[in-house]
Amino acid sequence: MDIILQGGSVVLPNNKIEELDIGICDSKISAIGDLSRSSSQKIINIKNLLVIPGAIDTQVHFREPGLTHKEDIFHGTMGAVLGGVTSIFEMPNTKPPTINLKELTNKFKIAEKVVFVISVFIGATEKI
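^ thats the sequence. predicted structure below, dont judge the formating
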């Protein structure tokens, strides 16, 4: 393993919290449990820290393009990941609005260079 996060309070799928180690290999979680007998290049003590699954924010407003003085994709996704959010759904309130394939493609081009989390860009139509 590349990294072992040692002794964190891990929230499990059954909603129980247990003090466990987390093994990371190639930037992905590879093991959860007692890893005291495992070897690693780096061991980080995370005792007294709570380890939770990544959150999903289903309504964000990054305002790019057109209104980046309010928020942009770079800073919005950076703030999300620092707060434990791993996935976002971004609303189409931009200038121009994301209401067609051209604007959605433009949004993808912006995001591929700067995004920090898994992103879903919501498009809308002009007509009901």
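The helical segments are 73-82, 101-114.
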